[in-house]
Amino acid sequence: MLEVCPPANDLESRVADYLKIMIGNMKVNELSLFLRFVTGASVCIVPTIKVEFNGLSGLGRRPIAQHVTVFWSYLHLILIMKIFVQNSAMYWA
Question: Structural domain boundaries of the chain?
Fold first, then answer.
């Protein structure tokens, strides 16, 4: 289901692993919100979700649908995604 572009460096490889772990540990409602963020639907409507890395930094660094920014640790990734998904949930109700 998750297709990760070939990592350009060790950091991207680590973040790809973090993302896989995070998705694997999500509760059903969190996974539903995550899928809604990346696909626009609460259920998986696509055969794969492609993950690519971008070069955004500073204030521009943020999750972008179908793209993942380089995060510095697994905990950083979880924190940013949970905050984003929880705050965005009110708009998707």
Answer: 2-92
